[in-house]
Amino acid sequence: MRVSSLRLLALCAGLVSAENGINGWLRYAPLSDDKILQQGLDTLPSVIVTLNSTKTSPVYTAGKELQAGILGVIGESLNITHQTEPAAQSSSILVGTAAAYNAGYGTVDISKFAPDGFWLSIQKGSVKIVGQNERGALYGAFEYLSRISRGNFSDVDLISNPDAPIRWVNQWDNLDGSIERGYAGRSIFFWNGTVVQDLTRVAQYARLLASIRINAIVPNNVNANANSLNNENIEGLGRIADVLRPYGIQVGLSLNFASPQLLGGLSTFDPLEPSVVSWWTEKTALLYKRIPDLAGYLVKANSEGQPGPLTYNRTLADGANLFAKAVKPYGGVVLFRAFVYDHHADWNVWTNDRANAAVQFFKHLDGEFLDNIVVQIKYGAIDFQIREPANPLFANIPKTNKAIELQITQEYLGQQSHFVYIPPLWKEILDFDMRADSKPSLVRDIVAGRRYNNTLGGYAGVVNVGTNTSWLGHHLAMSNLYAYGLLAWDPTLSSEDLLHDWTRLTFGPDPVVLKTVSDISLATLPTYENYSGNLGIQTLTDILYTHFGPNPASQDNNGWGQWTRATATHIGMDRTVKNGTGNAGQYPPEVAAIFENIETTPDDLLLWFHHVPYTHRLKSGKTVIQHFYDAHYEGAKTAQTFPRQWEALRNKVDVERFTEVLFRLTYQAGHSIVWRDSINNFYHNLSRIDDEHGRVGNHPHRIEAERLSLKGYSLVKANPLETASNFTAVAVTATDGLGEAVIKLDDVKSGTYDVAFAYYDVIGGRAHYGAFLNGEPLLEWIGDLEDKLGHAFSNKIDGHSATRVTVKGVEIQKGDELKIIGVVDGIETAALDYVAIIPPGELD
Ligand SMILES: *[C@@H]1O[C@H](CO)[C@@H](O)[C@H](O)[C@H]1NC(C)=O
Ligand SMILES: *[C@@H]1O[C@H](CO)[C@@H](O)[C@H](O)[C@H]1NC(C)=O
Ligand SMILES: *[C@@H]1O[C@H](CO)[C@@H](O)[C@H](O)[C@H]1NC(C)=O
Ligand SMILES: *[C@@H]1O[C@H](CO)[C@@H](O)[C@H](O)[C@H]1NC(C)=O
Ligand SMILES: *[C@@H]1O[C@H](CO)[C@@H](O)[C@H](O)[C@H]1NC(C)=O
Ligand SMILES: *[C@@H]1O[C@H](CO)[C@@H](O)[C@H](O)[C@H]1NC(C)=O
Ligand SMILES: *[C@@H]1O[C@H](CO)[C@@H](O)[C@H](O)[C@H]1NC(C)=O
Ligand SMILES: *[C@@H]1O[C@H](CO)[C@@H](O)[C@H](O)[C@H]1NC(C)=O
Ligand SMILES: *[C@@H]1O[C@H](CO)[C@@H](O)[C@H](O)[C@H]1NC(C)=O
Ligand SMILES: *[C@@H]1O[C@H](CO)[C@@H](O)[C@H](O)[C@H]1NC(C)=O
Ligand SMILES: *[C@@H]1O[C@H](CO)[C@@H](O)[C@H](O)[C@H]1NC(C)=O
Known about the structure:
Residues 1-18 form the signal peptide. Helix content is 30%, strand content 18%. The chain has 21 helices and 29 strands. α7 links the parallel β10 (216-220) and β11. α3 runs parallel beside α5 (134-149) and α14 packs across α15. One 2-acetamido-2-deoxy-beta-D-glucopyranose (NAG) binds at residues 453, 455.
C-alpha cells in the first residue's frame, strides 16, 4: 500500500489537534479509513490539467484547489500543467470551460448547460470537469473535492445547472467595521471608514462561498453610508473585486438613495431630476471603470428611515429604474428590497398591518420595473421570525423578477449564542404552494423565474460573517451557510442530506459524530420555536432593543408593527378579510380561503391570522394558553439534551471546536429556561389562567435570591419584570462593591444535586461570583459572556442578560450553608435571580 509520509504526518496530527474553524467545510482532512484511501489511491489521476493559465481565472484557482485538496485528503502531490494540446495520458483531472474543452479535448453538448453549470465525469481515474463558464468549472472542481473528501470515489457522469441565476450573499457591514446583526467579531471588509488593507480573510470567505456556488457578494450594509461611493472606497471595492474574481464571485454595492445630496452636494436626490440622473450615471461609470464585472446594486429605500423616491412623491419603480438604467449598459442588475413599511403605524387601528405593506407598496407597480431589476423579498411579510407564512408578495407581482431574502445570521433566532439549523424553515417556505390562478405555484418556482417566466431571479442570503475564525460565532451554525448556497443552486435538496454532507466534511466520518450532530441540529428549529414563540405569534423577543432575549410586551403598543394584540383574554393578529386587516386576502384565492377560515388555518399559524381567546382549542385539543406552557416546557427540556449529546463527542472532535460548541450549547440550555419562564410568567400573569400541570410560577427546587440573607445586596426589578423569577432579583448596591447572600439549607434532604445559579451578565463589566458550600469553594465564575460569546447582550437586568450556570453532582447535607459572594465590576452589579437545588434528572 502506498501511504505517503505526508499523510502519516497528517494522521498523527489527527483529530485531537485544535481546529479553529477557519477552513469551514473545506478542511481536506486526510481519509482515515485505509480501505477507502486505497480506493482513492487506485483511482487517482497522475496530473491536473487546467485549460487556463491566467492566475485570475477561476479555472486556474480550480487547479490549485484540486492540488491542495488531493494532497490533504489522499496525501499525494499532483503536478498542474496548463497545456493546450490534448494530453497523451488519459489519467488526468482536466478542468476548463466548455469552449476550451471543445477546442481540442472532446465535445460536450453546450446546449445542456445553463450559465454557471458544469459537467463532472469520473471514469476509472479519468476526471473531466467542464464548466459552462470559468466559474462553472470551479464549481465542478469543488464538487469533485467534496466527493473525495467524503470518501466517495465512485464513477459519476453528471451535468449540474443552477436553479436560478441570482445566488448572492449580503453582508450588513458598516464602513466603521461594525456589523449590523453580526455575531462573530468585526468586519472582514471595512475598518475606520474604508476597505481594510489586508484582504486575506476576504479571499478565504470567497473560497468558501465559491464552493457552495455563490456568485456575488454585497459587502456593505443595506443601511448604506453614502461614503461607500467616495473615490477611496471605489478603489477599495475594486481591490475587493480583484480578490473575489479568481473565485468567480462578483461584487455588488448597497446604495444610499440620498447619495447625490449627501456625497455629491446636490440640493436634491429626486430620481427624476436630470442632475440626479447624471450624478448616478457618472458614479456608475466610475465604478465600472474600476470594476468591469461589478454585479450591480442593492437598494433599501423608504424603509426604516432610509431615504427613497417616496420622499419626492415618486414611485418605488421610479427609484429602482434610475439605477437599472445606470447599470444596464454594463450588464449590471439591481436588487431592490421589498422591505418597505411604515414603522410609525398606529397600533390602535385594528386594520393596520405591517404584513400588508409589501403588497400595498409593490403590487400596483408590477410591470413598471425594468427587466434588470429583481425585487428582493424577505421570506415572510414581517422580518425573519421563527415562523411566518410565505410572503404574499411572491404571488402578487408576476411581471417582476423576484428573489427571496433568507437570513443565515440568526438575528431573531438566538444570534448564534443559540444554535438553530434553519434549512427546514427555508424549505417550508420554498416548497409552499401559492396556488396562483389555481395552478401549482411553489415559491421556489416563482423565485427561479419558472412560474411566471421571469428572466431573472433567485436568492439573497444575509450572512454577516466576521473576523472570528469560526466565521459566524458558532461552529455548528456554518451548516446554515453551507446549506444556503447549495439550496440556492438546487432547492429540492433535503435539509437532512445537506446537513449530513456538511458534518462529514466539517467533523469527519465517525458515525457517532454524524448521528449526534444530525440529532442536535434537526431538533433545534422546533426547540427554539417551542421556547421562543408558538402558533405563529412570532419570536417573542425584545423588538425595541437587541432582538435576542424574551420580552413579549415589547411587540405591542408601538409603531413597529410586530403586534400580537395580547389582552387579558385574547391574543393574535386578526388578519382575516371579514373582520381583520385583510392580509389573508393578499394570497391567491385557494390559499386565502385556508387562512381566512380559523378551522383550516394550521395550528402553527393560528395566531398569525386570528385573534382568539387563550381558551381557544387547537386541533391538538389543547387550549392556546396550555400549548404555550407545554411548548415552553418541552422546548427548554429538549435544549437541555443538546450539551448532553454533544458531551459524547469528547475525543471525537478536536478540543478547540469541541469546547467552544459545548460552551454555547450549555449557554443555550440555560437561556432556554430564561425564555421558558419569562414567556410563561408573562402570559400567566396576563391571562390569569393556571398551567394544568401546575408548573408555571411554581418552582419547588428554587430559592429566590431575595429570600437569602443579604449583605451588600438589595432587591431589584428586572425589566421586563417577568425576566426575574418571582419577579424580583438582587444586585450589589454596597459602596464597596461587595455583596454576600447566604442560606442554610434546612429544607433540603441530604443527597446529590445539581446546583444552578441564575444571574445577569450585562455588558460594561465583568463581575466576579463565588459560590461556597460550608465555606468550601463550589464554583467561581465571571460575568464575561460578552467575551466568551463574542456577542453584545444588554447593559440592563433583563431577558438578554439573564442566564444561568449549573454545577452537577453536588453532595449536600441537610443544614449545609450555601454562600454566594458577588463583586461589582463597572456597571455589572453581580446581580442574582435564584439558586436551584435540583435532584438529578429533574429540571427547574
Ligand atoms: C482564461 O482566463 C482569463 C481570466 O479569467 C479569461 O479572461 C480568458 O478568457 C480565459 N481564457 C480562456 C481560453 O478561457
Ligand atoms: C512534477 O513537477 C516537478 C517539478 O516541475 C518535476 O520534477 C516532477 O518530475 C513532476 N512530476 C511528475 C510526476 O510529472
Ligand atoms: C457516491 O457517489 C455516487 C455517485 O453520485 C452515489 O451514487 C453514491 O450513493 C455515493 N456513495 C456514498 C456512500 O455516498
Ligand atoms: C481613521 O481615519 C481617519 C481619516 O478618516 C484618520 O484621520 C484616522 O487617523 C484613522 N484612524 C486610524 C486609527 O488610523
Ligand atoms: C403625488 O403623486 C400622485 C400621483 O402621481 C398625485 O396624485 C399627488 O397629487 C402627488 N402629491 C403631491 C404632494 O405631489
Ligand atoms: C417567456 O418569455 C420569453 C421572453 O422572455 C418568451 O419568448 C416566451 O414566449 C415566454 N414563454 C411563456 C410561456 O410565456
Ligand atoms: C472567536 O470567538 C471566541 C468566542 O467564541 C473567542 O474565544 C476567540 O478569541 C475569538 N477568536 C478570534 C480570532 O476573534
Ligand atoms: C372583530 O374586530 C373587532 C375590532 O374591530 C374586535 O374587537 C373583535 O374581537 C373582532 N371579532 C372577532 C370575532 O374576531
Ligand atoms: C415542542 O412542543 C410540542 C408541544 O408541547 C411538543 O409536542 C414537541 O415534542 C416539542 N418539540 C420539541 C423539539 O421540543
Ligand atoms: C401583570 O399584569 C398586569 C396587567 O394585567 C400588569 O399591570 C402587571 O404589571 C403584571 N405584573 C407583572 C409582574 O408582570
Ligand atoms: C414571591 O414573592 C412574593 C412577594 O412578592 C412572596 O410573598 C413569595 O413568598 C415569593 N415566593 C417565593 C417562592 O419566594
